[in-house]
Design brief:
Layout (H helix, E strand, L loop, with lengths): L5 H7 L1 H11 L5 H10 L4 H11 L6 H16 L6 H14 L1
Length: 97
């Protein structure tokens, strides 16, 4: 499993992605996976993984700030999507926060 493959795993099976990342928390490679999470396209699966991890892991503050900033940026920049999708994502992020 490489960081580049993480987005596909998150989208297809958030539970397995969460468990994998939990197992990797004590490895030297985990910052690369956190970087990938913080850059992923906003989705409910991504928020589920972040939420599941946050109950078991204390994230570095920089990662948490970057992750939230990315979520907010994606909510404000979804000009290509219709307004319904944009409003839904904003609501999901607000509930998550």
């Amino acid at each position: 499993m490489t960081p580049a493959k993480l987005p596909d795993l998150v989208i297809n099976n958030a539970d397995i992605a969460t468990e994998l990342l939990l197992c990797m928390t004590s490895t030297a490679a985990i910052p690369k996976y956190y970087d990938m999470l913080s850059q992923m396209k906003l989705s409910t699966s991504l928020l589920e993984v972040f939420n599941g991890l946050s109950h078991h892991v204390e994230f570095p503050k920089e990662f948490t700030h970057l992750f939230v900033k990315n979520c907010m940026h994606q909510c404000s920049c979804q000009s290509n999507d219709n307004k319904v999708v944009k409003k839904r994502m904003v609501r999901i992020v607000l509930v998550f926060l």
